[in-house]
Amino acid sequence: MIFLTLGTQLPFDRLVRAVDEWCHARGRDDVFGQIAEPGDAGYRPRHFDWVAHLPPADYGARFAAARLIVAHAGMGSIITAMELGKPIVLMPRRADLAEHRNDHQLATARRFADRPGIHVVPDAAALARTLDRLSDRTGPAPHAVSPFADPRLIEALRSLIRPPRG
């Protein structure tokens, strides 16, 4: 399954429409989306199953079961994908398109773009190409990262906070 997640605060019509069009063009029926409430004028996908919101346990189960994640450039989605070793395709929301209040998602995407398993796309055409390349890929998943800091970092910080007595 490919899991599309947009967070819970704002709809993201540009990404939802791009995934919906990709599903239609490729005859895909293996996409599920948690897309926030699209509102009266928002885009409602016709070619994949979706809900506005998932309870946390269901969200976690969908995320864990997915072989590929498609998301906005939200830190929750990025960190969860990294912790679970899931490849993720990010399309950042853009302020100039009234998708967000500022461009922090562009900055976030730039910061993570060089990480293994993280694929950043600027638009629908790049998303389609990336989904074509990754959607049926088999092979090793990105290496999962620990949700905890490296013990050496913790010890270095501890020594700064509590210098040795002597």
From TrEMBL:
Organism for this UniProt entry: Halovulum marinum
Domain spans labelled Glycosyl transferase family 28 C-terminal: 59-113
Domain of life: Bacteria
Protein name: Glycosyl transferase family 28 C-terminal domain-containing protein
Molecular function per GO: hexosyltransferase activity
Database matches in InterPro entries: Glyco_trans_28_C
Pfam families hit by this protein: Glyco_tran_28_C (PF04101)
